[in-house]
Amino acid sequence: MKVFINKRIPEVGVEILKQAGLQIILPENENLSYEEWIKYCQNTDTILSIGGDFKYDKAFFDVCPNIKAIALYSVGFDHVDIQEANQRNIPIGNTPEVLSRATSDVAFLLMQSVARRASYNFQKVKEGNWGAFDPLHALGQELYGKTLGIFGLGRIGYQMAEKCRKAFDMEIIYHNRSHNEEAETELGAKYVSFDELIRNSDVLSIHANFTPEHKDLFNYSVFEKMNPNAIFINTARGGFQNEQDLYRALTERKIWGAGLDVTNPEPMSADSPLLELSDVCVLPHIGSATIEAREGMARLAAENIVAFSNGDKMPYCANP
Ligand code: DGY
After folding, report:
1. Nearest CA to ligand 1 atom 4
2. Domains delineated in the chain
């Protein structure tokens, strides 16, 4: 069985595939055009798929009828039409758990960076403008005892909540499709409506799977209901936020600041007005970018392919 891997991955994943006797196809150039990518996909049985640049939708499956399984190198699967894959009996593997710690670390990092105005202060140092000690300048805010609101309390949201609880004794409120009993018992997390979440959070952090209904969910009418000292954090998917509205809300001081590891589109344009704001910290989608997480992702994605090639169910599968 052939496996097309569109970018190099940590060796641990490649070893698993080799030991299973699978034929690995790697492109000569990793920055494939859509046409080049389709050609590779037409000549393989399975894909170990890195990145969300190209969609797995009806048009794709129609022109690549030989594809039997896809193992995503990500936990998110918003670039896959799962219904379409289901209709064609194509399992879609993903890589949950192994990146929860790393991604929640980035949410925690962004929260503190925005609270203590790290981007603004770093910029001043780079400009040679350190300045004299000033009791009234560049003041941040402390997070102790504040309220963390989590939108989407799954594995990553749980780890963010746990860090905030332990480090800053923060109260946890959350809005989710269903109750998270572990978070309620272990962290004292309280389930609230979406409206209560946005009104009562001092830090609002998104950790949900992105679906089309979520597009621009965080828009001006949401931001204006938030507390003027609230910090907005997104490490999930950029589509959750309307960036023009976020800019307006920040310039009108409806909220304190924003920390984004994901933007819409990605990459964010270097002339995005959000980058001019001192209380915005933007990272280039590095949530899972640790050696440990990326090796874990390589292992799970490879194990998904091997399971499929043995006629077994993928151990980590996005299809219901
Ligand atoms: C994921 O795994 O979904 C991360 O966002 C990396 O794409």
Report:
1. 74
2. 2-97+290-309 (3.40.50.720), 100-282 (3.40.50.720)
